């Protein structure tokens, strides 16, 4: 990789000063003249036909703007992959948080009482709430079979492997829903002008998703819909598609009222009504040779999509492609499906299906090792993907990745073997048991398969009249560092100081559609386009004879000023072109699923308290190969933050459902890890580079969500000698697991796990 000046250094965050000084403006800070406040009336049952709506006494309803489905000027749907989800229920409701009516009033304090005063009569219909109920089809709640989407990945001859197997290892693994729990709740402001159209300001990830949805909902052309991202306080996928719903509601109220409308969810509504991580069930059946080599197998991966399609097809796709993990499968058959239930729709969350299927894969590897008589380390070492081999989709591994080297380094820095030996002795006595667990995994960067071709993303770089440079992208900043790293890339390409580059606020009237800010694609895919567009600025100035090849920053500034003075607006654009050696067959679901993978080995150390059955994570080592690290401090923060979130996924964050409704939709009863619950998280990077990413970068944001859950559960299994195959794993689950194995009562006395359990 080329020697660089700005890329690779931890420069100050572009938005950092404004955030810490309070200058940053979030959507709830914004007030428009004559603005109304909006609220949503929601279904109180999981499924049924709407019979009657009554506006109760004690409320002056003449003061309120009231919107129902009949007020929608366009198509009653939230347009995304499919158009099945209505903006407002009209005849039927399909989950207990379904929006039915919208209210607006100048005094937001009156809105909760007004919402309560609306009574709705239903003819209830039978509802289903689990994957298994959906599969039985005793009730059909979506389409003809309750199935949103299926995929089939086949490689080799699976049917021929079973008779060759020395061992056939089976397992079933489940994961629960998880709330994104961003700091800032969802919120939108919409203004409508009959001549100009709709303008939206909001907390969001994907401006052009909202733009597309409002065009269909409000029956407006593209030029009459404008979406502007405000400062956004966290997202994690939870502000990918659901903001289109909130923007749609605010827009309908604003159109009917003729006044701006603000809708800000409180925490309870945000947690109960918006999308969560998809619950999942994965079943493995694996043929293994006596020397521990995987011969092939079958993997069935199923996710609960909730009531409507939303993003389930793409979550399912990524989960299916990652289901085989970082291992070589000579033959494999992966069946994947997303099913409908009568819960609020599930959606995007960091990792996007991969944390679910990789949890299963990494737990299953330990089970295979136990069956064959090999340690978790050795069973992985014997099955790692090697350069030149193919993934489950028959993508040839062209990167010079050495997973054994990653494994060895992770074992060394974590003192894995030394601690195993020490814990085996210590676990003979006392009220606590300690264990070690590991996970090896991969994560594809960018949209899957032909996704990037379909997006056809465009970015721009502008040379300004004052000689500075602006980057024009719809990629959004929500705490992960988009503004900073894309500015670094542009500055590096142009040989300018970081301070001479600024980012244009994402505004669909100002910036092109550079694709959604999801899927670990921003730095690798969008960053590469920014690099290309910036080089276009440079080459234009050189070819115009305004700038020599080797120039100073002052010379660039002067040349840019002269060009703008002579020619006016000075912008260069770069559009995504798929690399010629990247091909994906959508029909057969085969080929290069991703231009690049990030790779990792994580090691967790835990203590299990046999009095309370509480698990504490005492130490965590995260070693990853992520291409070139462009901003070391931000990269380290991404890894630490992802691991913290994944510890919650593993041990704390259980969504409690009752008849399709989240019962613990408050911070007081939805338990997440605090800083005191987190271990020292030791982050290490390997940097192999990546020809498809800006300055060798790969995606990094989702990777750290994938590995902690299996590493932690593997460590608990090591400590106790008992299999646990579901997350979140709460103290009561551990107690139940020990009881099922007849170990709970005698755990302290007998030294459960004293032989190290599954090693």
Helices and strands, with pairings:
Layout: H1 16-21, E1 36-42, E2 48-55, E3 65-67, E4 92-93, E5 99-105, H2 111-117, E6 118-124, H3 131-136, E7 147-155, E8 167-175, E9 187-193, E10 197-202, H4 207-218, E11 225-229, H5 242-257, E12 261-264, H6 267-273, E13 280-288, E14 294-304, H7 312-322, E15 332-339, H8 354-372, H9 376-381, H10 403-414, H11 416-426, E16 432-445, H12 451-455, E17 458-463, E18 469-472, H13 482-494, E19 501-503, H14 522-543, H15 553-567, E20 570-575, E21 584-585, E22 590-591, E23 596-609, E24 615-625, H16 632-651, E25 657-658, E26 661-662, E27 681-686, H17 703-706, H18 708-720, E28 726-727, H19 731-740, H20 747-750
Parallel strand pairs: 1-12, 8-28, 10-11, 14-15, 18-19, 24-27
Antiparallel strand pairs: 1-5, 2-4, 2-6, 3-5, 7-15, 8-13, 9-10, 9-12, 13-14, 16-23, 17-18, 17-20, 21-22, 23-24, 25-26
| Major sheet characteristics | 7 strands, mixed
What structural class do the secondary elements suggest?
alpha+beta
Count of individual helical segments = 20
Low-confidence stretches: 748-759
Radius of gyration: 27 Å
Report strand order across the widest sheet. Answer: 3-5-1-12-9-10-11
Distance between the termini: 40 Å
> What's the helical proportion of residues?
25-40%
Shape annotation: globular
Classify the beta-strand content into a percent band. Answer: 15-25%
Question: What is shown here, in short?
Answer:
This protein has 759 residues and is α+β, with helices and mostly antiparallel strands.
């Amino acid at each position: 990789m080329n020697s660089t000046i700005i890329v690779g250094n931890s420069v100050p965050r572009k938005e950092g000063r404004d955030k810490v000084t309070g200058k940053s403006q979030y959507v709830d800070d914004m007030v428009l003249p004559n603005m109304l406040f909006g609220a949503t009336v929601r279904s109180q049952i999981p499924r049924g036909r709407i019979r009657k709506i009554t506006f109760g006494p004690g409320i002056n309803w003449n003061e309120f703007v009231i919107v129902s489905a009949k007020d929608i000027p366009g198509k009653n749907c939230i347009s995304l992959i499919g158009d099945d989800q209505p903006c407002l229920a009209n005849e039927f409701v399909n989950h207990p948080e379904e929006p039915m009516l919208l209210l607006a009033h100048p005094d937001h304090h009156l809105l909760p009482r007004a919402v309560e005063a609306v009574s709705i009569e239903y003819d209830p219909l039978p509802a289903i709430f689990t994957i298994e109920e959906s599969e039985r089809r005793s009730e059909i709640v979506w389409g003809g079979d309750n199935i949103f989407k299926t995929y089939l990945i086949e490689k080799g001859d699976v049917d021929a492997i079973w008779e060759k197997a020395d061992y056939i290892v089976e397992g079933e693994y489940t994961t629960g829903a998880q709330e994104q729990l961003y700091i800032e709740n969802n919120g939108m402001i919409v203004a409508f002008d009959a001549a100009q159209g709709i303008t939206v300001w909001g907390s969001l990830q994907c401006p052009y998703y909202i733009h597309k949805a409002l065009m269909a909902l409000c029956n407006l052309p593209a030029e009459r819909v404008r979406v502007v991202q405000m400062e956004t306080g966290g997202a994690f996928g939870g502000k990918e598609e659901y903001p289109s719903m909130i923007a749609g509601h605010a827009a309908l109220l604003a159109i009917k009222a003729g006044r701006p409308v603000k809708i800000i969810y409180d925490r309870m509504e945000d947690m109960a009504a918006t999308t969560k991580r998809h619950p999942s069930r994965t079943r493995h059946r694996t043929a293994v040779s006596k020397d521990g080599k995987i011969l092939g197998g079958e993997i069935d991966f199923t996710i609960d999509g909730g009531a409507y399609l939303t993003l389930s097809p793409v979550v399912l796709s990524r989960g299916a492609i990652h289901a085989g993990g970082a291992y070589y499968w000579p033959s494999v058959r992966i069946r994947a499906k997303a099913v409908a239930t009568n819960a609020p729709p599930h959606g995007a969350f960091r990792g996007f299906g991969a944390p679910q299927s990789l949890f299963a894969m990494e737990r299953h590897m330990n089970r295979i090792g136990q069956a064959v008589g090999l340690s978790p380390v050795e069973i992985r070492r014997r099955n790692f993907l090697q350069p030149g081999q193919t993934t489950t989709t028959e993508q040839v591994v062209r990167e010079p990745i050495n997973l054994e080297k990653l494994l060895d380094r992770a074992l060394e820095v974590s003192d894995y073997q030394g601690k195993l030996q020490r814990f085996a002795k210590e676990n003979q006595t006392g009220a606590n048991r300690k264990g070690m667990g590991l996970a090896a995994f991969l994560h594809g960067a960018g949209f899957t398969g032909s996704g990037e071709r379909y997006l056809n993303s465009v970015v721009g770089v502008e040379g300004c009249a004052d000689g500075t440079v602006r980057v024009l992208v719809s990629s959004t900043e929500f705490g992960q560092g988009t503004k900073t790293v894309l500015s670094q890339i542009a500055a590096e390409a142009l040989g300018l100081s970081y301070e001479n580059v600024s980012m244009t606020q994402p505004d669909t009237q100002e910036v092109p559609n550079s694709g959604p800010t999801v899927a670990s694609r921003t730095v690798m895919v969008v960053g590469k386009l920014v690099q290309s567009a910036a080089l276009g600025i440079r080459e234009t100035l050189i070819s115009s004879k305004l700038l020599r090849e080797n120039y100073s920053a002052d010379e660039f500034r002067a040349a840019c000023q002269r060009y703008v003075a002579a020619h006016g607006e000075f912008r260069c654009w770069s559009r995504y072109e798929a690399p010629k050696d990247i091909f994906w067959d959508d029909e057969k679901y085969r080929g290069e699923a991703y231009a690049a993978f990030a790779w990792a080995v994580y090691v967790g150390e835990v203590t299990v308290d046999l009095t309370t059955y509480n698990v504490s994570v005492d130490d965590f080592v995260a070693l990853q190969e992520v291409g070139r690290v462009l901003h070391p401090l931000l990269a380290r923060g991404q890894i630490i933050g992802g691991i913290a979130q994944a510890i919650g996924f593993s041990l704390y964050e259980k969504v409690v459902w009752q008849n399709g409704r989240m019962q613990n939709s408050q911070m007081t009863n939805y338990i997440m890890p605090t800083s005191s619950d987190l271990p020292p998280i030791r982050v290490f990077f390997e940097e192999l580079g990546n020809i498809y990413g800006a300055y060798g970068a790969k995606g990094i944001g989702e990777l750290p969500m994938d590995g902690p859950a299996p590493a932690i559960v593997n460590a608990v299994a090591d400590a106790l000698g008992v299999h646990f195959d579901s997350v979140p794993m709460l103290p009561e689950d551990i107690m139940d697991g020990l009881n099922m194995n007849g170990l709970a009562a005698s755990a302290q006395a007998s030294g459960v796990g004293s032989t190290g359990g599954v090693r």
